[in-house]
């Protein structure tokens, strides 16, 4: 889950959400692992591919399991603080949004993704 300190003075936490035109939804960056790819390495790669941002991984936030088009899917999440980068729209992700946690929670399409906002905030406050 990609996050940053707000660059707009208050230093609050902002969460990066991606809009996927294929599904017309808002979600956290995620994707498929390559064969024999380490899950954390795959998560960092997917964040970079979908958002254009590099990041520093932090605590593991958990695993989400669900059905996608009738097939089981498993996604592992880590807190990932953005360091640098620039978003370039593409076929997979056409928009990103940096939002305060409460706004991100409302914008997320899937209720299961909202629980990750709480997991991130808990992890950030524990450090």
Characterization of the model:
- The chain is an alpha+beta fold and 127 residues long.
- Helix content is 28%, strand content 40%.
- The protein has three helices and six strands; from the N terminus they run E-E-E-H-E-E-E-H-H.
- The chain has helices at residues 39-51, 101-107, 111-126; strands spanning 2-5, 13-20, 25-27, 53-68, 71-85, 95-99.
- Strands 1, 2, 3, 4, 5 and 6 form a six-stranded mixed beta sheet that branches.
- A hairpin with a 2-residue loop joins strand 4 (53-68) and strand 5 (71-85).
- The longest helix is centred in the C-terminal third of the chain and has 16 residues, at 111-126.
- The protein is globular, with a radius of gyration of 14 Å.
Q: Could you write a compact summary of the structure shown?
A:
The protein is of the alpha+beta class. The protein has helices at 39-51, 101-107, 111-126; strands at 2-5, 13-20, 25-27, 53-68, 71-85, 95-99. Strands 1, 2, 3, 4, 5 and 6 form a 6-stranded mixed β-sheet that branches.
């Amino acid at each position: 889950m990609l996050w940053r300190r707000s660059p707009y003075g208050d230093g609050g936490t902002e969460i990066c959400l991606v809009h996927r035109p294929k599904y017309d939804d808002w979600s956290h960056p995620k994707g498929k692992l390559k064969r024999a790819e380490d899950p954390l390495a795959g998560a960092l790669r997917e964040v970079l591919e979908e958002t254009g941002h590099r990041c520093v991984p932090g605590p593991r936030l958990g695993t989400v399991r669900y059905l996608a088009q009738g097939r089981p899917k498993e996604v592992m999440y880590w807190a990932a603080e953005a360091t640098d980068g620039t978003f370039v729209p593409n076929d997979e992700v056409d928009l990103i949004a940096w939002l305060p946690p409460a706004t991100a929670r409302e914008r997320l399409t899937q209720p299961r993704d909202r629980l990750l906002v709480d997991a991130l905030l808990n992890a950030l406050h524990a450090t």
